[in-house]
Design a protein that fits this description.
The chain is built from 11 helices and 5 strands. It is an alpha+beta fold and 258 residues long. The chain folds into 2 domains: 187 residues, Beta-Lactamase (2-Layer Sandwich), CATH 3.30.450.80; 53 residues, Winged helix-like DNA-binding domain superfamily/Winged helix DNA-binding domain (Arc Repressor Mutant, subunit A, Orthogonal Bundle). 30% of the residues are buried.
Amino acid sequence: MTPAIQEKIHRIWDELSDFEASQSDQAVSLLMKSLCNLANAWNATWGGAVRMDGEHDNDPLQGWRVSAMIQLHPIVPDPDQGPFKEILQLWDRREIDPSFLLPMRSVGTFRTYSFRRELSPEWFESPFYRYHYGSVGTCDAVFIGFPLNQDAESHFGFYSRKTFTDEEVELLSYALRGIKWFHRQRMLSHGLLAAATPLTPTERRVLHLLLTGLPEKQIAEQLKRSYHTIHEYVSAVFRKFGVSNRAALMALWLGQSS
């Protein structure tokens, strides 16, 4: 990797650090857009993966499931449907495609895995590839997995209309290896690292407003809900994160508590 590319990545890191804790979604959008431009990718995703409790001896996915996912460019017309959504539904039903097994290699370690380097040529002729990837113009995909603990991982995916070069893969790996704090914030923002259970969409909106310092009354006004309803959401957020007040909640983002 050239010094010029490294400097561009370092500038992206600097920009990420300027975002407030409540601006997690804006920060991840900037990161994905910037890296897509550098690596010649047309789309990107982030997914938060967690390992479910229980015995997984007969489970090829070892209990892992994707509990949160966002797309840089949602597949129209409905961002909650389309190929990515259907892939997650197949994953949850344990209808195993060979591509699902790629993230299981060396699970628990930082790793990079990709379609063109690790799947057979026959896979690219399969109905699964043609429908979920080929139909939207994806020729290759590269993923970077970052473990936060033994039961939680942050994964970024990048999608290209051509085969990724070694240099582009190296660039993406380098850019995402050096920001553990950001992976941690992404997981926290969805309740996938410290929370007892994942946050609902409304709880996420309340969480982000809590992190701005707004009082509950103004949060209620912004979300057009009653104060009583918002107070219940705030209590639920605190309960899921195992904290009793806003200061303790903020401490999680500052890495002062686990």
